[in-house]
Amino acid sequence: MKQFSICVLSLLVPLLAYTQTTLTGTVKNRQGEPLIANITVQAKGSNTIAGFTTSDENGNYKVTYKGTADSLVVTVSGLTVGKHSRTVPNRPGQVDFNIEEKVIELKGVTVTASPIRRAGDTLNYAVGVYTGQNDRTIEDVLKKMPGIDVDESGTISYNKKPINKFYIENLDLLRGRYSIATKNIEARDVATVQVMENHQPVKVLADKMFVDAAALNLKLKESAKGKLMMNALAGAGYEPAMWNAELVAMYFAHRKQNMTTYKGNNAGKDLNLEIVTHEGYDYDYANSGSRGMLSITSPSSPPVSKNRYLNSISNVIAANQLIKMKKGMEMTFNAIYFNDRVGKEGYSVSEQFLPDGSSVRIEENIKSLTRTNNLDLSFRLNSNEEEKYFNNSLNIKGSWGNDRGTGVTRSNVGDMDEMLSQYLSRPFFSVGNSLDFIRNIRKRSYKILFSMDYNHSPHELTVSPANYFGDNNLISVEQSVVTDNFTSSLRTSYGLRKGNVNIDYGLWCSVDLKGLDSELREKGPAGQLVPAADSLRNNLWYNTYQVGVNQNYTYNKGGKLKVTLAIPVINYALTVNDRNLETFTGYNRWIINPSLKVSYDLTHELVLAAGGNFRKNYGNMDDAYTGYIMHSYRNLLRNTVNRLFESRSGGANASIQYRNALRALFLNFGVNYGTSWNNLLYGFDYDGIMQVKRTIDQPTRSEYYGLNFGGSKGLGFWKTRIGISGGYNQGRGEHLIQDEILTYRSEGYNAGASINTSPSSFIDLNYNFGWSKNWSFSEESTTRFPSIRNQNHTAAIWINPTKSFSINLRGDYRYNSAVNNRNMTFIDAKIRYKSGRAEWELECNNLFNVRQYVSASYTDLSTYYYRYNLRPRNFLLSVRFKLK
Fold first, then answer.
1. CB–CB of 480/523 below 8 Å?
2. Does residue 449 contact residue 490 with C-beta atoms inside 8 Å?
């Protein structure tokens, strides 16, 4: 037995000595970006490769060695990373590589890291490749990236579709107000911009609900993580006396993020663009909007850059905090305060042609002043895991402000020549909460959503004198409108998966209670208020109650063919309680609003998509009140038909999308069609200069056709990006004017192109071109006005004599065929100098001192001409410095 044991041990010892060692790790560059590279392992002193693997899109790798060597050599290699080796003991462990990307020359060929890398459905843009000397913020760089567009409002689109989420290090700190990040995070602090295609924000719904929108994620450099960063700016200028100030603090860590900013100026910079909630964003809370039925008449803003005309004093404070707690829970707090004072001055002439051959001509020369104070608070708890989702959002909004307008109104009706004063008080308050819970159990999903919201708006408009009302003894008229709105909804659903099909059934109910209390009062010559007649008052409750069944079917075959069919069935109940007329009316309707979306990936780069929908709607409070409401000093509205408003609409669309990351080429082409039918036709009669709403029991139909295309291409030289866009649209509908129905048609074309390039480190060039041609006409009219053609050209050049000194010239040319002064040119200049932690900038806007913008539009039914006073030539000197 002893001899047998010795024999067995002599056989096992060599086998035990031949061990298996597993090594894991990450491969990243100096900025913390993950790299895709080859990893090999071999015994020290041996030329034989004993293990091989490749890092994934996150830079992670796992490699195995089988042998008895005491030490191992782990090597990372690749065309864009070179060759890097480390010697480690032969035992399981982690071996991380932080290496510098290199340019490698092979037989006279230079190979550089690709500016765009694809990893599954995620595109990784290397920020350093696109960053120029004068690109300060990440928004400046985003505008240079192929496939990504940033419009004037700051909305980010990928392949012409707005993004549905914006993350910083995979966290949603700003919840739709992502311009706070894009306009303040410096480009040098961002390593990678990630675009996540077909992004489903809720993890439990991944592979269950198809999403055709993309999200954007900023991957920061290691040097920007876990430390407080603070920047400040101070500036002063003339004409008129100007100032500009900023203070920005940011902190981004693994479990905590904060962005707090203050900005203020009277230099024509629109601070509201930083805090706007962007189009297309996937909101997780009830979005209560201010209901404003009243307004003053003020000059129309011209279609030029806001810094050319905006005469304002603005201040904004934004505080945003996110904390990751235990068990995957996130707590987010957002607070925004916006204070604004905007002055406008302009002149306009409008002429409405009436069916009997006469016309109403109104000439206005108005100055206005708008004061705004907005406070927006939100608090969110969120847990987004693969098997469970929880979200609760509390939102409180308050607004207080007023509008004033003074000016002269002249008209050919009644030989009116009157100095008028307008004043509008418009406070607003709302509070809302939304609770969302989803749980996956095996192949089934259970969901519940409960939300409620309340808002209150007591508005009042005063116009004086009020002689144009027909009574020369009136000092003023005062229109008060108080609206209250309470909404609540409860939604539950059950989902399951069968093969390639996801089925989701849901029950839901909602309540929407709207109250309207209005009165149009007159003030006599002695200052006494004249009680409003019943025809000038409203006391109305407009309530809707809905119960519905949702049916959603999603087919997903290997990620290539995706089909989503939704068939909601709704019972719609409406009650209208008009306490002024002492009437109570109830309605009950069944509604089915189906929709279909289809997407097919011919290849990973080429996608075909199509969709269609049908919707039916019944009524809204604007169609229910019967007492007059003076919406503005020239608009007097009420409803005269005692019938429930009904509308039906349908549409279809199709698109082709091409996105090739390797070639940095992104193209899209789309067509769409829409039609609508209403059982009532709305229009206006003219009583002097007053537009009085008219409603007739006459069905009406409208149609719309359109096609569009767009694309962008990154070229392999000079950091060049080119873009193109274009479209065509045609529409048809009906107008009601002075009791006559007129059929109108409209048609338009548009085209655009852009290029951004840097031929060398000493020069950056940017050019944008836009062209449009539009016309509309009435089929009953024998007169045809010519089409209106518009062009705009914007060109900018940065000259960089040194790395610390830059000169910028910018030109803006506009053409409008409808006015005598068809051509308008603006020139701006800027000098920038960097010294240590400070950056000095001197800018001069409107060098040619253009003082007015003139524009016009016309159809067979009306013409409109206006002039708007612009900001004069001005100079602003500012210094930006890094505090931390």
1. no
2. yes
